């Protein structure tokens, strides 16, 4: 049966030079005009950089390490996704945010350049998490294969070219990670790295606690570390997105909690791709002191 506009995948349309899924751009004024409260906390990432991981860590900390409280609902109900939208439907995140009294935790993948102004005017705290480009590319490829709300990724070779030319949702990786990195001096932004979380989760949980001004017992921190391990989160329906209908997430193709590793890119990049990527990467990061680890 031919795809109808209702069930076809989105296409990318530029919003102030940033390619975005066309569906998200419907009634964009709603996002742009969002009124943040000074107590709101934003979790911001480029897609596939460990958003859900940081969300679960933050939610656990805000519940003083009583991790059972994080089972109160699926992630998008606990931490709404600001700009997300399905075709022909209301923005679910926006609807939830209207009903939630501050302080709220809000998820976004927006680059700094598209962030609604009120987050900055209100000087809301932001936790930004970045992940190395190669692993993001691999994770995004598998995600786009299974997620019908993303444009078709094509083959790995095709996707590789899309990614290095920035022709993916939310635009080029380097502009996103650099944009937020440069602003961390001017706004209350905690800049985390996926690779650091993998290296020492206990240390990174404590960093987030400090940023949020929370003190939690050692036992409770240990339970947060256990609760937010890849193995626990993979089995946890409150954060593994297993409740998303198969018409949206085709779990026969891939799963949301896929591998959770640093360095999986080595299983995907050909030698020729690695060489092309290195040359592109040098240009991307020219003049920046932002550095990533691609293996641990
Ligand atoms: P992979 O596809 O490489 O496995 P996001 O939440 O931004 O969409 O990121 C999803 C990526 O983060 C996926 O990467 C997922 O497996 C990984 N991830 C989620 N929770 C994790 C955890 N607790 N530990 C390690 N990786 C995690």
Account of the protein in words:
By secondary structure, the chain is α/β, with parallel strands linked by helices. The chain has a single domain, classed as P-loop containing nucleotide triphosphate hydrolases (Rossmann fold). It has a four-stranded parallel β-sheet with strand order 4-3-5-6, sandwiched between helices. It has a two-stranded antiparallel ribbon with strand order 1-2. The chain has 14 helices and six strands. Helix 3 crosses helix 11. Adenosine-3'-5'-diphosphate binds next to helix 3, helix 7 and helix 13.
Kindly summarize this structure in a few lines:
The chain contains 14 helices and six strands. The chain is an alpha/beta fold.
Which keywords apply here?
296 residues; 6 strands; alpha/beta; globular; 4-stranded parallel beta sheet; Rossmann fold
